[in-house]
Specification:
With 280 residues, the protein is an alpha+beta fold. It has helices at residues 2-18, 54-65, 80-86, 149-153, 161-188, 206-214, 220-224; strands at 32-39, 69-76, 89-96, 99-105, 108-116, 123-131, 134-142, 192-198, 217-219, 242-247, 251-257, 268-273. The chain has a single domain, classed as Endonuclease/exonuclease/phosphatase (Deoxyribonuclease I, Chain A, 4-Layer Sandwich), CATH 3.60.10.10. The protein has a six-stranded mixed sheet with strand order 3-4-2-1-12-11. It has a six-stranded mixed sheet with strand order 5-6-7-8-10-9. It comes from Neptunitalea lumnitzerae.
Length: 280
């Protein structure tokens, strides 16, 4: 019995990264802001899904939820005008044809930047956004894709295990380089930060834990999430690979996961509290 209890205690940190319960969502106040992260898989421009009207459905969801800031991964450039009309400020970087990352905000964007990597079409962009009387830097993260999901979903028994192992190893190596570049900049930046997006890896991964511990970040799901926090449409078990991390000067007041299947990912919305006074 004691051994079982000991093992459970050792594994508690991993359990809370996958399943959360008992967290009370705090009511929003005038000094709060909301943000959403969403890998939209190009709004179905490749017709990966037979579902009709996906782009309109995503736009309706975003308009209904009305986040102050929204960060898209795999954003499709022809849809830009839809969100340009919905939000006052924006920044976007397209590295792969008409696909890339975008940040839209109803608060003023005062500075922007990007991390581009030679080994990858994925990247990280950021925007410094003036919220009330404070500035928050938002990093929109889309790390190297693992490229094995389709093989696994096609059938675990049929998948080429040696090929999968090599592909994963190479992807993790590139992800490590990307996270190291982000951590290096974070150590130089002294302001408030929100780091969110598609990490293409789990909360058990080295890159997630390195980023979280090196910069002493909090995971919004662990603070205010509920249930499994699933963010990816994987058929074998719930999978959380999309995260919202922030420094602890920001109060996580609410965390929301969605189940609308308009992409292979599900969106995440978080409410943060600022300790800075509201500007007149």
């Amino acid at each position: 019995m004691l051994l079982s209890v000991f093992v459970l205690l050792l594994g508690f940190g991993y359990v809370k990264s996958t399943f959360a319960f008992g967290h009370k969502q705090e009511p929003a106040t005038a000094n709060d802001f909301t943000m959403m992260t969403y890998n939209v898989r190009g709004f179905n421009y490749t017709k990966w899904s037979k579902q009709e009207g996906i782009s309109d459905s995503i736009a309706k969801l975003v308009a209904t939820e009305n986040p102050d800031v929204v960060m898209f991964q795999e954003f499709h450039k022809p849809v830009f005008n839809v969100y340009d009309k919905m939000f006052l400020h924006k920044t976007a970087v397209f590295r792969s044809g008409q696909n890339g990352q975008a940040i839209f905000s109803n608060y003023k964007i005062v500075d922007t930047g990007e991390f581009n990597f030679k080994e990858s079409r994925n990247n990280i962009i950021y925007a410094d956004i003036l919220i009330h009387a404070d500035t928050v830097r938002f990093y929109n993260v889309h790390l190297e894709t693992n490229r094995v999901t389709n093989d696994i979903e096609g059938g675990l028994m049929e998948a080429d295990k040696s090929k999968m192992a090599y592909t994963l190893s190479n992807s993790f190596k590139i992800q490590q380089q990307q996270i190291d570049a982000l951590i290096a900049q974070l150590k130089e930046y002294k302001g408030k930060v929100v780091i969110a997006g598609d990490f293409n890896n789990t909360a058990y991964s080295y890159i997630y834990n390195e980023l979280k511990t090196e910069y002493d970040l909090q995971d919004s799901f662990e603070v205010k999430g509920s249930s499994f926090g699933n963010t990816y449409g994987f058929k074998y078990f719930p999978l959380r690979i999309d995260f919202v991390l922030s420094d602890k000067s920001l109060e996580v007041k609410a965390h929301k996961n969605y189940d609308q299947y308009y992409s292979d990912h599900y969106p995440v919305k978080v409410t943060f509290g600022l300790d800075a006074p509201v500007a007149d």
